[in-house]
Design a protein that fits this description.
The complex is a heterodimer of chains A (445) and B (251). With 445 residues, chain A is α+β, with helices and mostly antiparallel strands. Chain A has two domains: 114 residues, Uridine Diphospho-n-acetylenolpyruvylglucosamine Reductase, domain 3 (2-Layer Sandwich); 219 residues, Alpha-Beta Plaits, CATH 3.30.70. In chain A, 23% of the residues lie in helices and 24% in strands. Chain A has an eight-stranded antiparallel sheet. Chain B has a seven-stranded parallel sheet, with helices on both faces. Classes of the chains: A alpha+beta (445), B alpha/beta (251).
Chain lengths: 445, 251
């Protein structure tokens, strides 16, 4: 039987908001439904790597598919067929654990987000995307099948052909439709750990778009952008493209990360001056306009995973993420307005990422990605100013027919959410009656 | 007898415990064959599927309650037959019990002692004779640092593990000379379902970390291993505290 442990305030990766809940570790798919059922509402949570409150439920019961201390739990690999590349695993397995298994066997994830510490369940629930969205679409597109467990004991095998409505509702369904017990993920073959990398400096949104178009056939593309720079440096950045190397090389397993940020940084460490210095150094580290290199996949996909607990960099109060997608027809003016609003806000975004989404349709009813340009930012929470800025960015996003990403949100209003996702009412019919989340409460009031 | 033969046939008793499962994964990656025993068939099926996926060359499951000592000899004979020979037997089940209940009632204390000590004695007796007759093999038993000294907060659990340690010391002295390794594993705090209700401090280790330590200790033919290793120092200090001081402490 799973044992209840009153969580000392379970935190999402952004560490805001802070809401108390009891945490019940699920170690086996047969641990759910809970016996006896809890008196409160429930929400499944994996590694807790989403940023805002999509994985939180104040005064509720969090069903944690990772074991205490983040190892173990529902992390079993149930089947692998090297002929098809389909791996079946329990929902609590992380993408890093899948890589540890798959890379030595010559396989790789179909879609990688910026961290390998997310679980498969979380990847489906947020229908995550990666640097290859423009060619591969979202993670959900590579999940042929999964099993959904409902709190009334119903077990649903879901695929595009079987229980297709539940399949669509659960992908991007923010954990609300039930507990994913296991899922199949279709891996892709590789012959090397290496990535052939090209970095190109750009200046301005137009050049970024031109580079994205010129490299539309590169498997992975993403850009870092300096959001503080003004004047002739405005919207400067580095466009990064990568491909899996096709020259065979040893497929060793990655070594575990040893570096950890052991304490919270004081609030003053990250400010517009320190970030400005970092940005200038980062931009100028690459001397030439174009740089080619062969790099390991770990630093290419997961540069921040090297440092455990990097979210402590933002101090105890945590940070706010903002990610929007703006459709092509309104993208460029919208993006310029957002970037100008940020650079004049005096708030420094440490990690600012720009990418073009492709037109592969997302399989989820509530999936975030759609064709256009996406921008991801984060801001330390300092006074009301970060909230004021996000409010303005949300308004600009709405005005330009874009939408924001629930997995990275702690601030959008019910009105904004319902405008971004008009299908929300249709989705609500699939929510498990015993499930709820702080995010859902906030955006459906 | 090669000194460091890696176990290729493994009997896991309590195969669904977190530390055991983590250890079996390491062995599965090297292609071992398994006979898994635990109470719950559904959980056994999940562990078996995982081990097969990771590279196990064969997995047989056997659902039974290991408290039932009368059923041990038949189960062990079946396991030995199924595996051909047993290279490694890993005893990995146990209960933490509830110290307050065990203080109040002998029945509660007896349950802990039966599961952690007496049922283990039953298995070890059979396995020691088996390994002695084979002239090879490893008998690895997960005990606990709690068996090193009786403490106010968990002496019933501690006594069950302390008795187990002494029993294993004797068995080792008997069958080591026959070429059998007897490994007493003493983990400290490990983040497992058994300890999920305790506050997780910095001393808590992950099951995968403990598992790597167990496999290394088997390869190095160690007798006793503290996992993580710093527990050897903590327990040495704890054992050295004079009794007239120790009895006043609230540990």
């Amino acid at each position: 039987m799973p044992q209840k442990s009153a969580g000392p305030g379970f935190e999402s990766w952004g560490r805001y908001p802070k809401l108390d809940a009891s945490v019940v570790p699920l170690n086996w798919t047969s641990d759910f439904p809970l016996r006896p059922p809890p008196a409160t509402r429930m929400l499944p949570v994996g590694a807790g790597r989403s940023y805002g409150d999509v994985c939180l439920l104040g005064h509720g019961t969090l069903l944690r598919t990772r074991g205490p201390g983040l190892s173990g739990g529902m992390d079993r690999l149930l089947d692998f067929d090297p002929a098809t590349g389909i791996l079946c695993c329990e929902a609590g397995a992380t993408l890093g654990e899948i890589l540890d298994f798959a890379v030595p066997r010559g396989f790789f994830l179909p879609v990688s987000p910026g961290t390998k510490y997310v679980t498969v369940g979380g990847a489906i629930a947020n229908d995550i995307h990666g640097k290859n969205h423009h060619v591969a679409g979202t993670f959900g597109r590579h999940v042929p099948r999964f099993e959904l467990l409902r709190s009334d004991g119903t077990q649903l095998i879901c695929s595009p052909a079987q229980n297709a409505n539940w399949y669509a509702a659960t992908i991007g369904g923010m954990g609300l439709t039930g507990l994913i017990a296991w899922a199949e993920v279709k891996l892709r073959p590789i012959v090397s750990r290496r990535i052939r990398y090209t970095g190109i400096k750009f200046s301005g949104v137009e050049e970024f778009i031109a580079l994205s178009e010129a490299h539309a056939k590169s498997e992975y593309t993403v850009s870092w952008i300096d959001c503080l720079a003004t004047g002739h440096n405005f919207a400067r950045g580095i466009f990064m493209a990568g491909e899996h190397d096709t020259v065979a090389a040893p497929l060793k397993r990655s070594k575990p990360a040893r570096l950890s940020l052991p304490f919270n940084f004081p609030e003053f460490v990250l400010n517009r001056w320190s970030v400005g210095v970092f940005n200038a150094l980062y931009y100028n580290k690459q001397h030439t306009k174009t740089k080619n290199a062969i790099v390991d996949y770990e630093p290419f996909f997961y540069p921040l995973d090297k440092l455990q607990h990097w979210n402590r960099m933002y101090g105890r109060d945590g940070f706010l993420q903002f990610q929007c997608v703006l459709p092509w027809e309104a993208g460029q003016p919208g993006l310029l307005e957002i970037l100008k609003t940020i650079s004049s806000s005096r708030l420094a975004s440490f990690l600012a990422v720009l990418k073009v989404f492709g037109d592969a349709p997302s399989p989820g009813m509530m999936s975030f990605p759609k064709p256009g340009i996406t921008l991801a930012l984060d801001f330390p929470i300092r006074r009301e100013i970060a909230f004021d800025l996000l409010e303005r960015l949300a308004a600009i996003t709405l005005e330009h027919k874009g939408r924001m990403y629930p997995a990275k949100d702690a601030t959008m209003t019910a009105g904004q959410f319902q405008a971004f996702y008009p299908q929300w009412k249709k989705f609500a019919a699939y929510i498990d009656p015993a499930f709820d989340s702080a995010f859902w409460q906030r955006v459906t009031v | 007898m090669p000194a460091r033969r890696f176990p290729t046939t493994v009997l896991a008793l309590g195969a669904t415990s977190a530390i055991c499962e983590a250890t079996l994964r390491v062995l599965a990656e090297r292609g071992a064959r398994f006979y898994l025993v635990a109470r719950n068939q559904e959980k056994l099926n999940a562990v078996a599927a995982d081990l097969r996926t990771r590279g196990a060359s064969g997995v047989v499951t056997h659902a039974m309650d290991l408290d039932d000592t009368a059923a041990h000899p038949a189960m062990l004979a079946t396991a030995a037959q199924s595996l051909g020979t047993i290279d490694l037997a890993l005893l990995a089940y146990g209960v933490l019990g509830n110290q307050a209940e065990a203080e109040a009632s002998y029945a509660a204390a007896e349950e802990v002692l039966h599961t952690n000590f007496l049922s283990a004695v039953s298995l070890i007796t059979w396995l020691a004779n088996y390994f002695e007759s084979m002239g090879q093999g490893t008998l690895a038993v997960i005990s606990s640092v709690a068996g090193d000294r009786g403490r106010k907060s968990n002496y019933v659990y501690g006594a069950s593990k302390g008795a187990l340690n002494i029993f294993l010391d004797g068995v080792r002295n008997r069958i080591d000379r026959a070429g059998v390794q007897v490994l007493t594993i003493k983990p400290g705090f490990v983040a497992t379902p058994m300890t999920a209700h305790l506050a997780q401090g910095p001393l808590f280790a992950q099951p995968s970390q403990v598992a790597r330590g167990i496999v290394k200790a088997i390869e190095k033919r160690r007798d006793i291993v503290y996992l993580p290793a710093f527990w050897a120092i903590i327990m040495m200090i704890l054992r050295l505290i004079p009794r007239r001081i120790f009895k006043k402490l609230s540990v």
